Amino acid sequence: MPVDTGSSVDVLYLNTFDKLRLPQSLIKPLHTPLMGFTGHMIQAIGEVTLDFTVGKGTRISTIRAQFTMVDLEDFSYNGLIGHPILTTLHAIISPVQLKMKFPTPGT
Q: InterPro entries, alphabetically (predicted)?
Protein backbone atom coordinates (compact mmCIF):
# COMPACT_ATOMS: atom_id res chain seq x y z
CA MET A 1 0.00 0.00 0.00
CA PRO A 2 1.31 3.45 -0.78
CA VAL A 3 1.74 6.04 1.95
CA ASP A 4 -0.25 9.27 1.60
CA THR A 5 1.00 11.72 4.22
CA GLY A 6 -1.85 14.09 3.30
CA SER A 7 -4.63 11.60 4.02
CA SER A 8 -6.53 11.89 7.29
CA VAL A 9 -7.91 8.34 6.91
CA ASP A 10 -6.53 4.92 6.06
CA VAL A 11 -8.31 3.63 2.97
CA LEU A 12 -9.14 0.11 1.87
CA TYR A 13 -10.76 -0.49 -1.50
CA LEU A 14 -13.83 -2.72 -1.58
CA ASN A 15 -12.33 -5.06 -4.18
CA THR A 16 -9.32 -5.60 -1.86
CA PHE A 17 -11.65 -6.46 1.02
CA ASP A 18 -13.48 -8.93 -1.24
CA LYS A 19 -10.18 -10.59 -2.20
CA LEU A 20 -9.41 -11.15 1.49
CA ARG A 21 -12.60 -13.26 1.71
CA LEU A 22 -13.57 -11.74 5.03
CA PRO A 23 -17.20 -11.73 6.18
CA GLN A 24 -19.23 -8.69 5.10
CA SER A 25 -20.47 -8.48 8.69
CA LEU A 26 -17.11 -6.87 9.61
CA ILE A 27 -18.08 -3.75 7.63
CA LYS A 28 -19.75 -1.06 9.72
CA PRO A 29 -21.87 1.44 7.81
CA LEU A 30 -20.32 4.87 7.35
CA HIS A 31 -21.97 7.69 5.50
CA THR A 32 -19.15 10.19 5.16
CA PRO A 33 -18.10 11.86 1.93
CA LEU A 34 -14.38 11.89 1.13
CA MET A 35 -12.55 14.38 -1.06
CA GLY A 36 -9.33 14.08 -2.92
CA PHE A 37 -9.03 10.74 -4.69
CA THR A 38 -10.06 11.95 -8.14
CA GLY A 39 -10.71 15.60 -7.34
CA HIS A 40 -14.36 14.73 -6.77
CA MET A 41 -16.26 13.92 -3.63
CA ILE A 42 -16.93 10.19 -3.17
CA GLN A 43 -19.06 8.40 -0.59
CA ALA A 44 -17.39 6.03 1.87
CA ILE A 45 -19.24 2.72 2.02
CA GLY A 46 -18.14 1.62 5.46
CA GLU A 47 -15.42 1.10 8.03
CA VAL A 48 -13.60 -2.06 8.92
CA THR A 49 -11.09 -2.73 11.69
CA LEU A 50 -8.36 -5.20 10.73
CA ASP A 51 -4.96 -6.32 11.90
CA PHE A 52 -2.33 -4.62 9.75
CA THR A 53 1.22 -5.96 9.56
CA VAL A 54 4.11 -3.97 8.13
CA GLY A 55 7.77 -4.88 7.74
CA LYS A 56 9.61 -8.09 6.94
CA GLY A 57 11.65 -10.78 8.64
CA THR A 58 12.11 -10.14 12.34
CA ARG A 59 11.42 -6.41 11.95
CA ILE A 60 7.65 -6.38 11.73
CA SER A 61 4.92 -4.60 13.61
CA THR A 62 1.25 -5.53 13.74
CA ILE A 63 -1.41 -3.03 14.78
CA ARG A 64 -5.21 -2.82 14.74
CA ALA A 65 -6.20 -0.29 12.08
CA GLN A 66 -9.54 1.19 11.14
CA PHE A 67 -9.92 1.51 7.39
CA THR A 68 -12.44 3.66 5.58
CA MET A 69 -13.74 1.62 2.66
CA VAL A 70 -14.45 3.05 -0.77
CA ASP A 71 -15.61 1.43 -3.98
CA LEU A 72 -13.18 2.57 -6.68
CA GLU A 73 -12.14 0.27 -9.49
CA ASP A 74 -9.49 2.29 -11.30
CA PHE A 75 -6.70 2.20 -8.74
CA SER A 76 -3.69 -0.09 -8.95
CA TYR A 77 -3.26 -0.19 -5.16
CA ASN A 78 -5.04 -2.10 -2.42
CA GLY A 79 -5.57 1.02 -0.36
CA LEU A 80 -3.75 3.95 1.18
CA ILE A 81 -1.84 4.33 4.43
CA GLY A 82 -2.66 7.71 5.96
CA HIS A 83 -2.05 9.59 9.19
CA PRO A 84 -3.82 7.14 11.55
CA ILE A 85 -1.57 4.17 10.75
CA LEU A 86 1.55 6.33 10.52
CA THR A 87 0.81 7.79 13.95
CA THR A 88 0.08 4.41 15.54
CA LEU A 89 3.31 2.99 14.10
CA HIS A 90 5.32 6.05 15.24
CA ALA A 91 6.58 6.11 11.66
CA ILE A 92 9.10 8.53 10.22
CA ILE A 93 8.84 9.15 6.49
CA SER A 94 11.74 10.10 4.22
CA PRO A 95 10.31 11.06 0.81
CA VAL A 96 13.82 11.69 -0.59
CA GLN A 97 14.92 8.14 0.22
CA LEU A 98 11.49 6.58 -0.38
CA LYS A 99 11.72 4.96 3.05
CA MET A 100 9.61 4.63 6.15
CA LYS A 101 11.10 3.74 9.53
CA PHE A 102 9.19 2.61 12.60
CA PRO A 103 10.07 0.88 15.85
CA THR A 104 9.40 -2.84 16.15
CA PRO A 105 9.13 -5.00 19.27
CA GLY A 106 12.59 -5.71 20.64
CA THR A 107 14.31 -2.82 18.84
A: Peptidase_aspartic_dom_sf (IPR021109)
